[in-house]
Amino acid sequence: MVVNRIRKNFRGGKPAQTRLEAFIRARGLYQLDVARATGIPRQRLRRWCIDEDSPMLANVRKLLHGLRELTGDRQIKANDLFPLDDE
User: Fold this and answer.
1) Cα(47)–Cα(53) distance, rounded to whole angstroms?
2) Contact by Cβ (8 Å): 38, 55
3) Structural domain range at position 39
C-alpha cells in the first residue's frame, strides 16, 4: 500500500509542507542547525515552516546568509525558501 507522504492541511486542502520546510528536509538539516546558523529562534523557524507566520525582510536576509554559510551553496535565493513569485 502506498501512502501519500505530503500531509494535507484542513485549510484549503493544500500541502502542509512549505518551501522552507522542503528546503531544510531536502538538505538533511534540522531546524536547530538552521536556528544556530542564522540567529533566528527555532520557534520562529517552526512557525514559518508550518505556514503560521511570514518573516520580515530582515529575517529573510538572515536566513539566506545563514543557509548559504551552512550549506556552502551561494546560489540559494529567497524564492527557494518562500513563494515570492506566486500570484
Assistant:
1) 6
2) no
3) 19-81
CB 64 within 8 A of CB 58: no
Looking at the domain assignment, is residue 6 inside a domain? Answer: no
Whole-angstrom distance, CA of residue 87 vs CA of residue 85: 7
Cα dihedral sign, 3-15-55-67: positive
Q: Can you give the pTM of this predicted structure? A: 0.76
The verdict on residue 7 lying in a domain is: no
Identify whether 13 is part of a domain. no
**1 lies in some domain:** no
Residue 65's DSSP bridge partners are none
Question: What is the tens place of the pLDDT at every residue in 10-67?
Answer: 444 455 589 999 999 999 999 999 999 999 999 999 999 999 999 999 999 999 999 9
CA separation, residue 51 to residues 19, 32, 78 (Å) = 10, 18, 16
